[in-house]
Task: structure prediction
Amino acid sequence: MTPAIAFLLAMTFLISIGGIFLMVWGLANDQWGDGEEAAKVIFAEGELGREEDPALTGVRRKGIQKEHEEGDLNIDEEELAERRVFDRSGRTPVLWWLSSSIVWLLLGSLFGVVASIKLHVPDWLIQDAVLTFGRVRPAHLNVVAYGWASMAGVGVGIWLVPRLFKTPLLGGQYATLGAMLWNIGMFSGTVAVLGGMSEGLEWLEFPWFVDIFLVLGGALAAVPLLMTILRRRVHHLYVSAWYLIAALVWFPMLLITAKLPLFTGVEQAIMNWWFAHNVLGLWMSPLGLAAAYYFIPKITGTPIYSYSLSLIGFWALALFYSQVGVHHLIGGPVPTWLTTLSIVTSVMMVIPVLAVAINHHMTIYSRWRMVLSSPTLRFVVAGAMMYTFASVQGSIEALRSVNVITHFTHYTVAHAHMGVYGFFSFILFGSIYFILPRLVAWEWPHIWAIELHFWLVFLGFGIYFWPLSIGGWLQGTAMLDATRPFMDSVLLTMPYLKARSVGGSLMTLGHVVFAAHFILVMRRMGPASDAPPKLMQGFGKRKNVEVANGAKS
Amino acid sequence: MTRALGIIAGAALILLYATMLLLIMPAIQLRTGENPPAALAPYTEAQARGRQTYIALGCVYCHSQQPRDASLAPDMTRGWGRPSVPKDYSYDNPHLMGTMRTGPDLFNIGARQPSVDWHLTHLYAPRSVSPGSNMPGYPFLFDVIDFVPEGVTAVNLPPEYRVRGGTVIATPDAMDLVEYLLGLDHTYPTDDLPQADPDDQPAAKSADDDKVSVLDTDLLSGTLLPPVAKVGATQ
Result:
């Protein structure tokens, strides 16, 4: 243990010194000073104070705009027209990533519901090994984590690139190829898990040759980001860009390290949870935060509350989140210093979380009424709030006294869903509602379908989360009570597991509504919106534009 | 920030640092694979095949293999065995420590439940021997035949679980899986657990010393529950 502690002390010292030097350098080079200007990078000239939500109808749009007191807006219309072209520059790759993600969302939800029902109807679908619980559950996890969440996250990220750098997307074809490879990986990985060829590590079930596709697909998705950065027309990298860049650096590093055959036994378990938690912390979280940092200010027309704070939030997330994973092995046969380190960093996560929370919630605070009107914003803000909740919950859950109860129970499962679903998926839903109309020049035909989607998944998730958390907590207390037989901890969870199936089914229903609506827009079906046909301008060939405009007016 | 390269380098360096701290340092410290306990035998061929089935059927999603210390949880009292130490996992690749206890910990299931019959019955129809369990049955690990040839194990089932007009027998997969489960026995003593240090000054002793002494292996073997009575052992 002594060398480990010596190493920790030495690193603490070096990092502190390094941090001070970085701060001095940052101050000297004015990396902080004009931050508030950088916060406005995402707006066109004169656009501050103007809402932007393509899912809105005219009446609501006016209602929202009233929230602003700025009065006359003097927007640079030329810049807006240009942006509409940029918006569409990533059409092919973004549509590939997003459409694929929705297919995986539907499949993953189905697996989830089946696995959930199996826990309280254990004799259901047991005749074939393919559908046994131990295969459907990992299939669910991998399909929603890598198929839905990751692919949608990458799609949203690629779409944000031209917006962030005010340049058309370059190298989009690489990302398209990346989506194809990723889909091949997802398909073969899912077949492998269902067929019993899992590698046996949670979150890493896909065989190594399948993960090659994911690594290559992810790397190819990063190409347009890098190419576009080099040609960018803004000086400042907006906060969303930091998160995007970092996420695309981290994911391949994580996956490659995890798949190297370096570790066995306990070391492998440590690696396993270092990886699994980092998928959430260093892959999904940055992608989700990148989207939230863009859409909240953009939709409301208000710059982010404190740009300097976002800088702290970003680097603190990188530093602390990367070390929290071993809290999954508290009480296990791992060195105590290691679990302690992970618990400490888990608690330290409060710093970046508060930074992000202040930024998101204070930005929306002055415009909170928009949440009622704007369907896009409602998803994103709900997601941002659940990010704060999930993160604080996670910090508390890492404490030994709490963890001893929640470890090995359904409570952890509920918590994981608060992160991946409540936070990340909600933000992705909102982002897709924002993005899709700009890609295909067709607005969402049914506001009610968006509302229905929201309430199905919001209430469904509530019915999923709260009973499962309570049931998991009771399960943990029962397991700790030596006077109660183990079977008590199984029997008492039954009503809660049934509630989870109900909630999960409602969520799945919401996804079906969402997917159907998505297809309507893709195929340009449904009644035309009463919103101004601005989206159509500057799209595609001139002739098409005129036709489209003619059709609308 | 204005430099993309700075973000790329910073992000990569921080993750490298975390990797060194979380993966490399423990690996240097532990070296589990290099020094297996003498009492722990490597997996036999049948056990290794059974372990593969355990992985393929995803048993790990409901069963952990890491009993905790008595100061944390009553795992020992439940008969799950002494707290595991890194060496116990010397031959484990992939590790199957698990993070869920929808069912009980299995690290010492071989010692706790050494009956082949019980395991086969339990795998075929869990609720016939463990009422209230929500474990799925694994009928595809079994065959139903008219005549049981020599060398094939028939599954003992209570009347209501029997298949009319045939006998349920275990496939080689089922036998291998049971072989693996029976091999899960880490009740041998280990000196890797914290022990009361005889050199300690008496004044430094705290109330916790009592807890530490519970880890004594003699006491441990005494806490193991007797095997569950065989169900339908005779037909």
